[in-house]
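Sample A.
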Amino acid sequence: MIRVVTLDPHEPVAVQRLCRLLYQAFGVGCDSAGDMELPAGLTAPFDAGALVRAAPAPKLYADDRVLYLTARPLQERTLVSGTAPTHGFAQYGGQRALITTVAIKDLEASLKLVARHAMHQLGHCWDLHHCLDPRCAMYPPWTPSFGAGDAIFDTFCREKSEQKIRLAKS
């Protein structure tokens, strides 16, 4: 089960549509776990890893994943090629992921991009690595063409995510 937690106000209808897209992508249940307060002591732009570790969690079972949505900026990260905006963060192989909608003016209109970022971060929670196929949600999100893609996995990433999800349930 994927639990979507909003750390800032988001349109409930758009959050429900995001849950439906994530259900279609992963084939596991997805529901809104409601709003939760941002952890005290953190300031924007947030260190994404620190925010994920400090954020309150809804009731989770061993095979559940939680996706936090925030409308606040995340600190840029340093890459070999320079700095890149941070759209999200995931505990690789863990239970928690985060995405920001700071650059999104209308969540409903940009749902495909938000779902692509959510799939990418949740894919990392299920041990998926970056993919070389620019059509796949696991393509590196700091690339200019990431936003042009659909909220889908390529065949390899879909099969690997299904395998990881089946293993998590056993």
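Sample B, a different protein:
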Amino acid sequence: MRFRVELDGEAYSKHKEAFKRILAKHGLRWQGTLEAPLWSSRAERVRATFERDPEQDVTVHAFLVWEGATKSKLLEDLKAWAWEVGGKISEEAGPPLEDVADEVERALHLWDVVYKPNVDSLRLQGRPKAWIEEDLRRWKRMRQERRRELMGRASD
């Protein structure tokens, strides 16, 4: 299930702290980047897209997309906040989260085949244990970044 909130940039800028408090109240945590803002929890997430005027350095429009398997208290609070600040709310069609998750897992499996360090092979080559552990930590960080990127693409 997906709902889209469209806001005037000025309204969003004035009330973004209230928006962030709503997200925190419902347990959503920042997991995105400045280019692709994303707040998520296990059951739902909110992505943001901003249309900006670079000359005046202001936000012209803000688009927030809530996604979840079922309607939640967060969605109701988000709708109420958007209505208060003059936003428009509409339901969007999109792939179910389960389908997106399956697609992402398949893509990550292929990614792992290429990028996951082969610990046994590295040990046989005489690579120090600390180096192998660092390789695995780096792979895990890169895999998380890849997962976020794939989730963002699959839900667009």
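Observation for Sample B: The domain at 2-92 is CATH 3.30.310.180 (TATA-Binding Protein).
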